[in-house]
Design a protein that fits this description.
alpha/beta; Nonspecific Lipid-transfer Protein, Chain A; N-terminal domain of TfIIb; Rossmann fold; 22 helices
Length: 645
């Protein structure tokens, strides 16, 4: 104890010296110290030891002892804990756990406590240089995008170009798959989706919003002129004006109506990044005040979610199939790949680039038969070649049923697998054969629907039924594709049933198109799409599933149970009532839990805070949204976006 108290005293004394030293070396840190005049205190919980820091006009001095009149105070439960957590290389997890267990306290106004804690953290990064000197005044940085990892070249504070990352001998070695007497290893250079090359232009685009704007005839203290939304112009205001106006409106609505009157929704994705991503800082903020969330319909994977999920019997992949290990299995054992409503060369697997291209070219090199089913001669078919079948849009399910008919009547399915590993096949079989509705789902029957000649359907069914076949349904299995059309639910259900008939999971028989499923080091964990960033949200993100044992932040919870379905926002605003079904990936039964708006005890929505993305360009019958925006029922609208949309 005595040793730790001595160490604590030395650290506190050194803290003053370190701040002064950092201010002498760093202009930005020196200017920051001028931002606040305050008294800060760091002490032990029993008041046996502490030190007070006085910030005044950019200068810092300190004195030993306890000051009962300090503006802010950091409190540690013991000197041992204080010594461990005040080291530069402290454990973030230990710090968070100490906060959760009330072993650290922080007292004072939010504005001052946030400033002081950020100031302490900035000492660790002041004057730290990043990047690689590329010569001629150019510095090369690394970054990541949702279209691939990049090198970013900067000169005199401006981006001059963006290129794919090229890996060198200091980077980790890639994986290698041995299959059919060959070794397959990805190239040592990343790929990028075309739009990633446009990031430089996007950053410097004259269309970007660089400052806040207010509708010219909107006066929160007077006439709001709600009916003029979309017709009246905008004027530039200062950041202080904008922040005060939005904060005042949030407080007013919460005070007058309750937190349920504040509605927040986002585009499906908006901007990416640890802070800006729609599952990160946005949710943390709105959880802290309480809000009515906009419930997204699963429009990226609609047919898989509402339909296919019930055939899997689980909801782990939102109705899609499992991808792990499929690239290796496909290269080793597969004899044919059917790309059905699948164009990964154009869609890049949703979040990726062209890393799957070389893997699909390996299929061609191995002589694996490739079939493409798509109303359009898509990019993947054009690049890889093979057989192309072009059904009419939204008729793919008829084609799938006809394939099943051939398999059933000609015995081209895995009977043992179906008997031992599936349930309900008899119902499916009787429907296919027409015993249920009197209509056998023959290739001739489907020809009137899809336009595909019956002879071609029989040929495809026979080849598929006698070869180890992979089915690539969608850009990545379970997203996009025909699952979004009017018959998308039935199509997605049929995709699962077809693969079950062929013994899915056996060598060379699975779902995937080489876009996902490469070898993975399971000993390494990196938070991804759904882990929630800084949100701490244990209900609406995967944080509670994937991060519960390593959660590096304080948890947050929204206390409002009222919800509004995104496709029914206009009805909620204009008519004051609507209903919907949740997108609940935790359980199959969750999608049947109908909810009504307004929820009992909650006020109708009065303030809509929209985070990125425009409803008018992405939803159905958007004149409804225009009328809702112009309704006096909606007293205030805030839109946070990088574009004027």
């Amino acid at each position: 104890m005595a040793l730790e108290k001595t160490q604590f005293a030395v650290i506190l004394l050194g803290l003053e010296k370190l701040m002064a030293f950092t201010a002498r070396r760093s202009t930005s840190f020196r200017e920051r110290l001028k931002g606040k005049n305050l008294i800060a205190q760091i002490k032990l919980q029993d008041n046996s030891q502490g030190r007070t820091f006085l910030f005044k006009n950019g200068k810092v001095r300190s004195r030993s002892g306890i000051d009962p009149n300090s503006d802010i105070t950091i409190i540690y439960s013991s000197p041992e804990l204080a010594v461990r957590l005040m080291r530069p290389n402290r454990s973030q997890l230990e710090q968070i756990n100490a906060m959760k267990n009330f072993q650290i306290g922080l007292e004072g106004p939010d504005e001052l406590t946030a400033w002081f804690m950020e100031t302490l953290s900035l000492m660790l990064s002041a004057n730290v240089s990043y990047g690689t000197d590329a010569g001629k005044g150019v510095t090369r940085y690394t970054s990541n995008t949702n279209g691939g990892p990049v090198f970013v070249y900067v000169k005199e504070g401006r981006i001059i170009r963006v290129t794919p990352i090229e890996f060198d001998r200091d980077d980790a070695a890639p994986w290698t798959i041995e299959a059919r007497g060959r070794r397959f290893t990805p190239p040592r250079k990343a790929t990028l989706s075309p739009y990633t090359f446009a990031w430089k232009s996007m950053i410097y685009s004259k269309e970007r919003l660089l400052y806040p704007m207010k509708r010219v005839d909107f006066d929160p203290a007077g006439k709001r002129n709600c009916s003029n939304r979309g017709t009246s112009g905008y004027e530039r205001i200062s950041w202080d004006q904008a922040l005060d106006m939005v904060a005042d409106e949030i407080k007013r609505v919460k005070r007058e109506y309750g937190p349920g009157a504040i509605m927040n929704g986002s585009g499906s994705h908006h901007t990416w990044g640890h802070l800006g991503y729609w599952l990160s800082g946005r949710i943390r903020f709105f959880n802290s005040i309480g809000f009515t969330p906009v419930v997204h319909n699963p429009d990226s994977w609609e047919g898989w979610y509402w339909g296919a999920m019930h055939h899997w019997g689980q909801s782990m992949r939102l109705g899609g199939s499992e991808a792990y290990g499929t690239v290796e299995d496909c290269l080793r054992h597969c004899e044919m790949v059917v790309f059905w409503s699948s164009d990964p060369e154009a869609t890049s697997g949703v979040y990726g680039a062209f890393e799957g291209t070389v893997r699909r070219q390996w299929l061609k090199e191995l002589g694996i038969t490739l079939v493409h089913i798509d109303p359009y001669y898509n990019h993947t078919a054009a690049l890889l070649g093979g057989k192309w079948l072009a059904p009419r849009p939204a008729t793919g399910n008829a084609l799938a049923l006809a394939i099943a008919y051939v398999w059933i009547t000609e015995g081209l399915y895995d009977r043992e697998y179906v008997e031992k590993r599936t349930v309900g096949f008899e119902i499916w079989r009787d429907y296919i054969l027409g015993k249920e509705d009197g209509i056998p789902k023959t290739p001739e029957w489907q020809e009137n629907e899809s336009g595909i000649p019956a002879k071609d359907v029989r040929a495809l069914a026979r080849e598929w039924g006698t070869r180890r076949t992979y089915l690539a349904a969608g850009g990545i299995t379970g997203f996009g594709s025909a699952c979004r059309c009017a018959t998308g639910n039935e199509w997605a259900r049929s995709m699962v049933c077809l693969m079950a008939m062929q013994g899915m999971g056996k060598p060379g028989v699975n779902m995937g198109g080489m876009q996902m499923g490469t070898p993975v080091d399971h000993r390494f964990f990196f938070p991804g799409y759904a882990e929630g960033g800084l949100s701490g949200d244990i209900q609406g993100t995967a944080l509670g599933v994937n991060m519960y044992q390593r959660m590096p932040q304080l948890a947050t919870v929204n206390t409002v149970y009222q919800r509004v379905p995104r496709l029914r926002i206009p009805e909620a605003i204009l008519e004051g009532r609507t209903s919907g079904y949740p997108t609940d990936p935790k359980t199959i039964e969750g999608q049947f839990q109908k909810f009504d708006y307004p929820a009992p005890g909650n006020a109708p929505v009065k303030l809509y805070y929209k985070y990125g993305g425009s409803h008018l360009g992405t939803m159905c019958d958007t004149n409804r949204y225009a009328r809702a925006y112009q309704s006096g029922n909606l007293e205030c609208v805030v839109n946070q976006s990088i574009w004027f949309e």
